Amino acid sequence: MIVHVADVERLIGRHADIDLRWDTIRFGITTHDAGHKLTDSDFDLAKRIDEIAAAHGAEPIDY
């Protein structure tokens, strides 16, 4: 799944911070040039990551 996300990130020129644990993967997305705020590109990447995660059978968790 992470490789699939990385492929999409390279394609669109956006990159998430990835926190990989034994039972979870957390993606952190902000735009450094925008003062670490969220941009439309960040929401686009988040949507793509959600789609990839669903295709891999991952389920979202609440923090």
pLDDT under 50 segments (min length 5)?
none
Shape: globular
> How would you sum up the major sheet?
2 strands, antiparallel
Strand order, main sheet: write it out.
1-2
Number of strands: 2
- Please identify the structural class as seen in this structure: alpha+beta
The share of residues in helices is 40-55%
Spell the H/E element sequence. HEEH
Q: Number of helical segments? A: 2
Termini separation (Å)? 21 Å
Radius of gyration: 12 Å
Mean pLDDT: 89
Percent of sequence in beta strands? 5-15%
Describe this structure in words.
By secondary structure, the chain is of the alpha+beta class. The chain has a domain at 1-29. Helix content is 43%, strand content 13%. The protein contains 2 helices and 2 strands, in the order αββα. It has helices at 2-12, 40-55, and strands at residues 17-20, 25-28. It has a two-stranded antiparallel sheet with strand order 1-2. Helix 1 runs antiparallel to helix 2 (40-55). The longest helix has 16 residues, at 40-55. The relative contact order is 0.22.
